[in-house]
Design goal:
The protein starts with a strand and ends with a helix. Helix 6 links the parallel strand 5 and strand 6 (about 175-180). It has helices at about 45-55, 75-80, 90-95, 100-110, 130-140, 160-170, 180-190, 210-215; strands spanning about 5-15, 20-30, 35, 60, 145-150, 175-180, 190-195, 200-205. The chain is built from eight helices and eight strands; from the N terminus they run E-E-E-H-E-H-H-H-H-E-H-E-H-E-E-H. Bound molecules: adenosine-5'-triphosphate (ATP).
């Protein structure tokens, strides 16, 4: 059964008292895959973080800057996805001396994102696309009801990006993802949310969005 997970009703969203998006009305329901589209600075991250703040349950969040700790290994960065599942003593032990079972668990999600064998590499020594894969692996390890991600595949090619989104779909029933690749968004999403001029101007299925509708987002 479909459930409403978050609702905004005619709300103004912004930062430091300044409105970025005015009159936002939007509901996110379970089972939906929302792609947030709009030109740079339109307010995709603003909307994404607001939805994040309204959701209950177990949520995985992939920020635009990946939120990784450079000097730590891919293993440790991925393990962070489950830090709040364990007591401090266990996390400290894992930081210094990961068990074979813990390594194997993390290897499963690193394999799923194409990072097999890179678990011990400090993430600051990885490429931009590999860092995004680590951040996605961390979300996959976390799991949960919903994944929110801010341009999580912007540094990989289109084919790899589609594969990574498919990995997310296998784990998460509901997704909200800010994207810059329109074709990828149309191929993946069940619903397109278009932002322009400080408002949501498009809220429809990918097939309902005309080329003109999409082009108007990037004027
Ligand atoms: N954490 C923040 N604190 C203050 N202002 C912010 C913050 N995040 C975004 N803004 C401001 O909100 C406006 C919209 O930015 P936002 O990051 O939501 O757009 P975006 O569509 O995600 O852009 P991009 O595609 O470049 O990431 C911008 O003017 C930006 O400076």
């Amino acid at each position: 059964m479909t459930r409403v997970l978050a609702t905004l009703e005619n709300e103004d969203l912004g930062w430091d008292g300044k409105t970025v998006l005015a009159g936002v009305s939007l509901s996110v329901a379970s089972g939906e895959r929302l792609a947030l589209l709009g030109k740079s600075g339109a307010g995709k991250s603003t909307l994404l973080t607001t939805i994040y703040s309204r959701l209950l349950g177990r949520i995985a969040y992939v920020p635009q800057d990946t939120g990784l700790v450079g000097p730590l290994s891919a293993f440790h960065n991925v393990w962070m996805g489950r830090l709040d599942d364990h007591r401090t003593a266990r996390n400290l032990r894992t930081l210094v001396w990961p068990s074979k079972a813990e390594r194997a668990t993390v290897d499963t999600v690193l394999d799923a994102t194409g990072l097999s064998g890179l678990g011990r590499r400090p993430v600051m020594n990885l490429s931009g696309g590999q860092k995004q894969r680590v951040a996605l692996s961390r979300a996959l390890l976390r799991g949960g009801d919903v994944v929110l991600a801010d341009e999580p595949v912007s540094a990989v090619d289109v084919t790899q990006g589609a594969e990574l989104l498919a990995r997310l779909d296998e784990t998460f029933a509901t997704s909200v993802i800010a994207m810059h690749d329109v074709e990828m968004a149309k191929g993946w999403a069940t619903r397109i949310i278009g932002i322009a001029g400080g408002r949501i101007v498009l809220d429809c299925t990918p097939t309902e969005a005309s080329d003109a509708d999409i082009a108007a987002l990037y004027v």
